[in-house]
Amino acid sequence: MRRLRGGAVAAVVLVFAVAGCKAETKTGAGGPTQTGGGGAALSAAESLTVKGRAPKTGYARDRFGAAWADTDTNSCDTRDDILKRDLRDVKFTGGTCKVSYGVLESDPYSGQKVTYKRGRSLVDIDHMVALSDAWQTGAKYWDARKRIALANDPLNLLAVDASTNRSKGDGDTATWVPPNKAYRCTYVAAQVAVKKKYGLWVTAAEKAAMEKVLGTCPGQKLPSGGNPTEAPARFHAD
């Protein structure tokens, strides 16, 4: 496992165990963060509310605010915060916010080494619970500040290989999991954590898929932390 980089992200999260389903501790901006504080991921998945998917009518990216808003008020946008957290050998342009270069030594989704270069990036920042999926499982009924919080919460964000990520679209666990089998338990645990934190529901097929994946790693811990579930009042969305 690699050391988290940068001091930008408050309440750094996503310090997951991939092999052996063991919790690990890493040092981030807020000091050591122990994974698994929220309990076993499988139990959390079993507790999620099941409902049918709401209509996608009315969904647009701007319903979740401007992309990569600085909701943690550290003067860096959320995208650069996550790049600093997840990449190695990071280089900057004009200070310590704008990431110009970095390396994913082992992309979580593909398992391959991927190089980030600003302006011609092979790296995406993925919303592990896609915003469209969130819209259809509860977020359409939220106040805008909660939607903005979700879109910028480090708990729900991960730097990944762009081409692999784009095969996901807005799929949930029932329709897409990473090709890298070693990361599937970690990935699904993150989705469960986000849905539980924000009170999003799951479809019956999604819940069954989550339980199937996590059943192969019953010791997988549930990640916790991230940003508050309401963005500061100065942020607005359509």
From TrEMBL:
Coiled coil: none annotated. One of its GO terms (molecular function) is endonuclease activity. InterPro entries: GmrSD_C. Transmembrane segments: none annotated. It comes from the Bacteria. Residues 77-212 form the GmrSD restriction endonucleases C-terminal domain. It holds the Pfam family GmrSD_C. Keywords: Endonuclease, Hydrolase, Nuclease, Signal. Residues 218-238 are annotated as: Disordered. PROSITE patterns: PROKAR_LIPOPROTEIN (PS51257). Residues 1-23 form the signal peptide. This is HNH endonuclease family protein. It comes from Streptomyces guryensis.
